[in-house]
Specification:
Layout lengths: L21 E12 L2 E12 L3 E5 L6 H8 L9 E10 L2 E2 L7 H7 E4 L10 H11 L8 H11 L3 H4 L12 H14 L4 E5 L7 H14 L5 E4 L3 H7 L2 E6 L2 E7 H6 L4 H7 L5
Parallel strand pairs: 3-8, 3-9, 6-7, 7-8
Antiparallel strand pairs: 1-2, 1-4, 4-5, 9-10
Helix pairs in contact: 3-4, 3-6, 4-6, 6-7
Length: 271
């Protein structure tokens, strides 16, 4: 694989205005793992009620960036935001008086590997909603059904609600994790390569749900799959060596990338 060149021009960061108002505004964000900088002054915007794909080579900072958006990065030992700002709908997510737990609840994240809790399907869906008081005891059954239906799982599990969630298939587990996140009534959905461990049929179902989610939420998806990024997203970022080298509408990025780095990545010359 060719060595990634580190000293080429970066694209001017495009405003989210072309894709709608900004949900997230990232300004000069620097993040480190231990003593190593991973994000180098990233500035970009992520639009409201659109699907934004974050693309780039492995190890380039995509997962670090998405975890920085909901303060789960700081749960990793040695990881920290060094400087810069992340704002969601104008609010500074790293303000000293802010509550990281409230940020994580409002900005739900779906990980690469499904993470069902070691409890029943029903208890999985309701775990966060019950903990945060989103629904009352009397509302539990209806609340669970609502979100299992929203992810297309209800008909598959309605007679198995008290079985352990770990008995579900991988694709079902990922949809269960999505139902659990939605049941918390978040304000945005973040996904870190949500289909990389799934077969093609399960991937199509998750992609269909992503398309539906854009009607209610800003959705951010880290993906290594360029075809998937083009299918599902309205807006895209290319992150290379901890920097945003291209940002804007997905169609424009694929059809007319403005930087040599973006052209090389999209053409498969590295990554």
């Amino acid at each position: 694989m060719p060595v990634l060149p580190l000293h080429r021009e970066a694209a001017p960061v495009e405003s989210a205005a072309a894709s709608g108002p900004a949900a997230f505004e990232i300004d000069a964000l620097v993040a480190r793992y231990g003593g190593k900088s991973v994000l180098h002054g990233i500035s970009c915007q992520i639009p409201e009620r659109r699907v934004t794909a974050i693309m780039g080579p492995s190890g380039g900072g995509k997962t670090t960036l998405i975890k920085a958006l909901n303060r789960t990065l700081e749960l990793t030992p040695g990881a920290a935001i060094v400087s810069g700002q992340v704002r969601f709908r104008g609010a500074d997510l790293y303000a000293p008086a802010g509550d990281p737990r409230a940020v994580r609840r409002s900005l739900g994240i779906i990980h690469q590997q499904p993470v069902p809790f070691p409890m029943s399907i029903l208890e999985n869906v309701l775990f966060g909603a019950s903990f945060h008081g989103v629904c009352t005891r009397a509302e539990r059954a209806a609340h669970a059904r609502l979100f299992l239906e929203k992810v297309g799982l209800w008909d598959e599990v309605k007679d198995r609600l008290h079985e352990r969630a770990t008995r579900l298939s991988g694709g079902q587990q990922q949809r269960l994790c999505l139902a659990r996140t939605l049941a918390n009534r978040p304000q945005a959905i973040l996904m870190d390569e949500p289909c990389s461990a799934l077969d093609p049929q399960a991937t199509r179902r998750i992609e269909d749900h992503i398309a539906d989610l854009r009607n209610e939420y800003p959705v951010v998806v880290v993906t290594h799959n360029l075809g998937q990024a083009r299918r599902i997203s309205d807006h895209a970022l290319i992150v290379i060596d901890g920097r945003v080298v291209e940002a804007g509408p997905t169609d424009r990025i694929f059809e007319a990338p403005q930087t040599e780095l973006a052209r090389d990545f999209l053409s498969g010359r590295f990554g």
